Amino acid sequence: MTVSDPIVESVITTLSRSVTEIRQGLVGRRGSANAENPSGETQMEADIWADDLLADRLSSIDGISQYASEERDTVLDCGDGDGTSTGDGYAVAVDPLDGSSNLKSNNAMGTIVGIYDAHLPARGDELVAAAYVLYGPITTMVLATDETVSEYELTGGERRLVRRDVTLPEDPVVYGFGGRVPDWTDEFRSYAREIEQEYKLRYGGAMIGDINQVLTYGGVFGYPGLVSRPEGKLRLQFEGNPIGYIVERAGGRSSNGHQSLLTVAPNADDIHERTPVFVGNDALIDRLEAELADAR
Ligand code: AHM
Ligand code: MG
Fold first, then answer.
1. Are the beta carbons of 24 and 17 closer than 8 angstroms?
2. Ligand 1 pocket member 206 (CB < 6 A)
3. Residue nearest to ligand 1 atom 4, measured at CA
4. pTM for this prediction
């Protein structure tokens, strides 16, 4: 199934073709690079390598004007003009290897791409499409556009549609929350206590694996604001917005605890801005917002 927007289609085709190489390149790059990303986290060799590969491939697509990633300080200008609303193309924001600390223990990881019809940093409702690749036992991709959400299997650079019109199951089954319990706020802890009585824990240390559980079985994923870091861990441009967009297009909700992630005005001076992230079935996000609102 091809996407009607030709620029989005090019990005998705390029991404699909790059993942075989990314998978192969992980071998031998499981060690630390002795460097930090702009968020102050230790980079793996694979983080830097995957970022360079995707920057090279995605920035050379016709109609892509900016490339930004979790692993580089500044936004790369690709300066490509076309018929988008900004008049100079779409911007891509990438988390090249989400959950790369899982490389050491050989567990699931992902790649996230948001395609914005706006200059970065941008609001999530400026996304025209978002996709993630899940490096699990098999490699899959979930792609959301304004039209639909689809799941593909990726092999040999090709994508094969396996699930059309992906929607969150109505009856939630799973939950997963990041951070350490003592570092949660009282309000979030009381919400989490209720949720863990009702649903099954699924937390794998790579958001993409956990999000795929929520899209498959229904439920809620959250990385909350912490007492020691109220802004949480995940980044708005590279993680919160694209995942919020995918889950909302699949019929669920996203939130920073108080409002949809897609309506959050970004800090114009900080492409690496962090945010609490919550996504899942409507009712579970409504409950969360109600609990956090009581604390205000
Ligand atoms: P990364 O993109 O640098 O790998 O960090 C994001 C990851 C998410 O995939 C995951 O949900 C979270 O960090 C896990 O953090 P923690 O180890 O604190 O549970
Ligand atoms: Mg990440």
1. no
2. yes
3. 99
4. 0.96
